[in-house]
Design a protein that fits this description.
Elements (H helix, E strand, L loop, with lengths): L24 H17 L2 H10 L6 H27 L4 H26 L14
Helix pairs in contact: 1-2, 1-3, 1-4, 2-3, 3-4
Main location: membrane
Protein name: DUF4870 domain-containing protein
Subcellular location: Membrane
Length: 130
């Protein structure tokens, strides 16, 4: 017979940065600002950072963080479009502030993780740009 403790799934492994490590503090600061900029500027700043540095081999860390921020902001933008459509049946009006708060919290978490650990991967994100 199996005991209830045998049926408990194992806990997930602790967070470990998977991308390349920042080569200097400038890249780390730009990556942190790229994540924070999503609160106000949505996809604009991550898109600019990604487009400017995507072909440079010495900026792989910055490109990876910009792509991560851009994918998350595209996902949030899709969420806003869905909330706008659902606003016609009232529920979207309640979901829009929750989506804004979700964006705010995860942008701040990403900026803190990037400044301390060096890398962050957003949960619940469509990976459209790879």
């Amino acid at each position: 017979m199996s005991t209830p403790s045998d049926q408990i799934p194992p806990s997930p492994p602790p967070y470990e940065p998977t991308g390349p490590v920042a080569t200097n503090n400038d890249d780390k600061n730009i990556a942190m600002l790229t994540h924070l900029s999503g609160i106000i500027f949505s996809i604009i700043v991550p898109l600019i950072v990604w487009l400017v540095h995507k072909d440079r081999t010495d900026k792989t860390y910055l490109v990876g963080e910009a792509k991560e921020a851009l994918n998350f902001q595209i996902t949030v933008l899709i969420g806003y479009v869905i909330c706008w459509v659902l606003a016609f049946v009232i529920i979207g009006a309640f979901l829009t502030p929750l989506l804004w708060l979700f964006n705010l919290i995860f942008c701040i978490i990403a900026a803190v993780r990037v400044s301390s650990d060096g890398s962050y991967r957003y949960p619940f994100t469509l990976r459209l740009i790879s």
